[in-house]
């Protein structure tokens, strides 16, 4: 769903005099790798914080870990890990992470 909003934002820029086309921006974004972070074993009472930050719940039925998860751009990884460690785990946790390419993210 977040990807739909990103697409709408890019398409909306078309009329704002920006130099690059929406397709160019989508292509550039597709070349950047992202990291999927799984907040496994997070305290139950932190679910509202995770949800408010854009994390989604996976019940484990699709092969992913049973955990709250999110995807972040590679440059934002350290900031997200710092937030998880300070606000959710409250210790130097090392959550499960998977680096994703565009092929991984949009595979059917």
Automatic annotation (TrEMBL):
Domain of life: Bacteria
Protein name according to UniProt: Uncharacterized protein
């Amino acid at each position: 769903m977040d990807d739909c909003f990103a697409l709408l934002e890019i398409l909306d820029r078309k009329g704002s005099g920006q130099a690059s086309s929406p397709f160019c921006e989508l292509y550039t974004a597709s070349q950047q790798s992202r990291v999927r972070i799984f907040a496994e074993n997070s305290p139950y009472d932190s679910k509202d914080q995770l949800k408010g930050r854009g994390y989604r719940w996976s019940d484990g039925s699709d092969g992913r870990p049973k955990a709250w998860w999110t995807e972040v751009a590679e440059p934002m990884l350290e900031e997200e890990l710092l937030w998880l460690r300070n606000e959710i785990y409250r210790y130097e946790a090392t959550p499960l992470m998977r680096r994703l390419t565009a092929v991984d993210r949009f595979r059917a």
